[in-house]
Amino acid sequence: MPIEAVTTTITDPGAEPRSPLRRAYEIGTTQQVTLSTDHHIEQQINNQALRDISPPGMTIPLTAQAGREGIDLTLGNVSSPDPALAKALLPADGSQVGFDVNELGAITALKLNPKPATSDTARAALEQSFYQAVYQSIAFPEDAVGVGAVWTVRQQVSGSVPLEQVTTATLTARDGNLCTIELNVVQTPKSTVWHLPNEAGQLEIVDYLMHGTGTITVDLGLPLPVSGSVQVGGNQTYRDPRSAVTLHQTLRTEVQWGA
What we know:
It is a single chain. By secondary structure, the chain is mostly beta strands. The protein has one domain. Helix content is 9%, strand content 51%. It has two helices and 14 strands; from the N terminus they run βββββαββαβββββββ. It has helices at 83-89, 120-135; strands at 6-12, 30-45, 51-52, 58-66, 70-75, 96-101, 107-113, 150-157, 163-175, 178-189, 193-195, 202-219, 227-239, 246-258. Strands 1, 2, 3, 4, 5, 6, 7, 8, 9, 10, 11, 12, 13 and 14 form a 14-stranded antiparallel beta sheet that branches. A hairpin with a 5-residue loop joins strand 6 and strand 7 (107-113). It is globular. The two termini are 27 Å apart. Residues 1-20 are annotated as: Disordered.
């Protein structure tokens, strides 16, 4: 599954000394890391009661290995606080995932190869989690930077509501290959309508505000972030022009990396 290309622009190169931020791992380098995702959705139709329609969160242990064109991932025992999803995820142990990565660290494609016994429910949950991780990852600037550097990353986010995502990254610390980067994320719709799933029609976008922040720590000698989290949330309001029904949603998505 291809991922939309990114455009990076430096707004402040930071302090001297400056050097390019580039992944420096050798082919075959391995890393153990855990990816956790949580997606919270509250929904209200007109004046009806507020409903929590959040999908279950997931914790995904990963073994990452640097390949020639990207990063190969092997899933460990994926868990979820939802008993039904946790049971459905059991056959996914050992499934393969891949990230194609360019020279600036941007992910250009996502590959999912679940074990054959993995159910459609588990496959969809894994796909959603990895999409969240991909779009909350960070690309590096092309030119050399130092501590205090600020750059923006623009990217189109595919989905039922196409978005333009602008991430402002600040290099707050660097010790050799270890870099700490603060992130500020803003998402705005590129369309005035939301195309509902399964060709169920479309709704007008009345209001859409999504913003997030986070901090990640990256070791340039390893394929994936070693720690950190990014949380993006906000409010969305939609209207059905045929019936004047109004749908209001409050969303919050968190992607977390850790040992």
